[in-house]
Amino acid sequence: MLKIENLCVSLAGSPILRSLSLDIHAGTTIAIVGRNGAGKTTLLRSIMGLIPATSGEMHLDEHNLMRSAAHLRTSLGIGYAPEDRVIFPTLSVQENLELPCEILELSSQEVEERLAHVLDVVPQLKPMLARSGAALSGGQGKMVALGRALMVGSAIVLLDEPFQGLAPALALQYSEALGRLRTSRPDLSVVITESNSALLTDIPNQILTIERGSFVEAIH
Ligand SMILES: Nc1ncnc2c1ncn2[C@@H]1O[C@H](COP(=O)(O)OP(=O)(O)OP(=O)(O)O)[C@@H](O)[C@H]1O
């Protein structure tokens, strides 16, 4: 499914990702755990094509991601919920959710079907749909960012530190949403980064530890 080989990324002339390799099979949930600054966000942003790689290979099935611009990666079914959420304050929650569908040029019926599915997985979004993006708490913004990633993430979703800063009740709701996702979309792959592995409970099938831009051990 997603296969990364010897990925190297430098930022401002410094090596940040050092020859990372990762093989994610369809339907698996992988957690990447590492301290602040270990390279988690850089990895997800380079998978999305938002940061150029210095060298390495990256394929989603038969598609060579290294040759695909960021918007094409979205079209291939990669959804991304960034750590800082990026909720547009002048748009409603529904508009925020539907925004990435514009890249895919989906019919309004397809957008409606995807939204219905996302609301089944994250029902907390239903009463918020008409609310302004500016009126959301940080935790609610994380739920919207999850929903938005699911609107386009038909193959894989990348969730950057989803549990950071979530109150316990919201963290539980987020975990429950991921549980429903497993059942409703068994082929979807999920990558979660976290700095605190205790927040992950039993969600991932596999946990990898990243330190200074390299994977150091597989915990299980
Ligand atoms: N635009 C940039 N220019 C230069 N260095 C950067 C840039 N963005 C990030 N870095 C550096 O890259 C390293 C990895 O950062 P990254 O954000 O990927 O870490 P992280 O594991 O996601 O941690 P955090 O939880 O703090 O976001 C850090 O040393 C950071 O200072």
UniProtKB/TrEMBL annotation:
Top-rank taxon: Bacteria
Domain ABC transporter residues, every copy: 2-219
GO MF assignments: ATP binding; ATP hydrolysis activity; branched-chain amino acid transmembrane transporter activity
SMART domains per UniProt: AAA
Database matches in InterPro entries: AAA+_ATPase, ABC_transporter-like_ATP-bd, BCAA_Transport_ATP-bd_LivF, P-loop_NTPase
GO biological process, one term: L-amino acid transport
Keywords noted in UniProt: Amino-acid transport, ATP-binding, Cell membrane, Membrane, Nucleotide-binding, Transport
Family to which this protein belongs: Belongs to the ABC transporter superfamily.
Name this protein carries in UniProt: ABC transporter ATP-binding protein
